[in-house]
Write a structure and sequence with these properties.
It contains two helices and three strands; from the N terminus they run βββαα. The chain is an alpha+beta fold. It has one domain. Strands 1-2-3 form a three-stranded antiparallel beta sheet, covered by helices on one side. Helix 1 crosses helix 2.
Length: 108
C-alpha cells in the first residue's frame, strides 16, 4: 500500500470554547485539519463522528478483508464438499462486502 496523502493519524478534537469552534487536529503535531467556525448545535457530535471514523477506518477495512477471506474459504469448502451452491443471501452479502471494500480502498 502506498503512503497516504491525508494527514497522519490519529486525529483528535480540540474545542476553543464551551459550545464554540471545534477543530480536528493531528495528534502530537502542529496545525489544524479542519475547523467548524460557525456554532452549530451538533458540531461536537460531528467532530467526534469524523474522528472516530477516520481513526478506525484502516482497522475496519482490515477486519472486513479478513471476514471476506474467511467467508470465501468457507463457501469454497461447502461448495466443493457438497456439490451445492450457497444460497442467494450469502452471495448478496459477499457482493456487499466487495462493494464496501472497493469504497474503502486506499486511493492515495
Amino acid at each position: 500500500m502506498s503512503e497516504p496523502k491525508h494527514t497522519p493519524l490519529p486525529w483528535i478534537i480540540f474545542s476553543d470554547l464551551e459550545d464554540g469552534p471545534v477543530a480536528l487536529l493531528p495528534a502530537g503535531r502542529p496545525g489544524e485539519i479542519c475547523r467548524f467556525n460557525q456554532f452549530m448545535q451538533n458540531n461536537q457530535a460531528n467532530a467526534e463522528f469524523i474522528v472516530r471514523a477516520v481513526n478506525n477506518h484502516d482497522a475496519l477495512v482490515e477486519a472486513l478483508r479478513d471476514a471476506d477471506d474467511a467467508l470465501r474459504g468457507m463457501i469454497y469448502d461447502f461448495e466443493h464438499e457438497t456439490g451445492e451452491n450457497v444460497d442467494a443471501d450469502i452471495n448478496h452479502t459477499m457482493e456487499k462486502i466487495e462493494q464496501a471494500l472497493a469504497k474503502g480502498k486506499d486511493e492515495s
